[in-house]
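Q: Could you predict the 3D structure of SGNH/GDSL hydrolase family protein?
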Amino acid sequence: MSRSRRVLLVALFGALSVTSLFVRLAVPGLFRRAPVAVANASEPPPERVRLAVLGDSNSQSYHDTLMLGDPGARGGQWRATTWQWTEVLARLRGDQIDQGKWGAWGTGKYRAIASEALGALARTPPKQDYRYNFAVSGATCSQLMGQSQRQAIRLVDLMDTEPQAWRGGIVFVRIGDNDLSSHELFDELSRDPAAPHPAAVIDACIKSIGEAVALIRKYHPDTYVVLSTAASGADWPGEFESWQSAREIANIDAGIDRFNNGLRALAAADRHVYVLEDEAWFRSMWGQRDAQGRPNYKTVHLSPGWAITNTSGDDPHNVFLSDSHAGVVWNTLWTQYFVTSMNAAFGLHIKPIADAEVIDFLRPSFKAAGTTSATSQEAVK
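A: Sure. Here are the predicted structure tokens for SGNH/GDSL hydrolase family protein:
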């Protein structure tokens, strides 16, 4: 064979290889086979329920020091006793719910792209978390299926390595806050709930979530998918001076309903998909604006000295942390709600988290903040 022909063949092979890599990245699942173990369903699902998470900083573990290295983040001086909901769940129901091993997972985005293109497992960015938790601070809906994170695609790749273990498991998709929570977007909604820009953002987000749900359901038909509704930015203390009229608040709620109704439509089409009504839960606990659109929030009393208000601050008396993320009390009470909801939605048998457990779990947080302790017999109010 002549040298020129060898060079031509090498170039042709290289071009085909590069093309196949781009095709692999551009068309999720093109080279993926239906998991044989799931197709046969020859073994019962594992006793511990597998739980994976796709999302943003609302679900990334607070005690990640690899990506969240700022000592002032996620609770500041009380970070050691400020827990995110997946961390609460691991501590209270780790014997029944498997979120994967805690460790350092992920690489830089270019290495992740290269690994994925070559057929290896990939994820980005690097962080400390549970293995099945793909939530990343700052993630938007587009990161579910698009670069650089491709959260849903890379999670399904991981699930494919142990398909039988995901029978009866749950993938929780909690994302959209970074798409929908800007002051400017809510300001547009306050004037017109059908304003073109917010509507386009919401519709794009629903489209991405729908594609992620379809991908998971296609390759893991015995796995449940849970979606989380969006909340109103008007309920965040940082916006209490904004939108001081009933009409503005009603418009914002109507705009957010566009997103939440999109999620509900996805669930209505598939009995394995469930919508967790986060906004309704928050308002059942702390209330909402009054009929005139003014802040009118309740105080949650867990015990004498344990009064939690819809305010911002790093000690556990605040619903929100100083960096605007959910505080330890919100996360613990929400975890209680999550377990109850999963049992009701899918007929699971996870032991409900009792009020006494909530009190016991939160005691170190309030002790660290120098507040009155509570007895484990006192009920959550």
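Q: Anything worth pointing out?
A: The domain at 43-296+330-354 is CATH 3.40.50.1110 (Rossmann fold).
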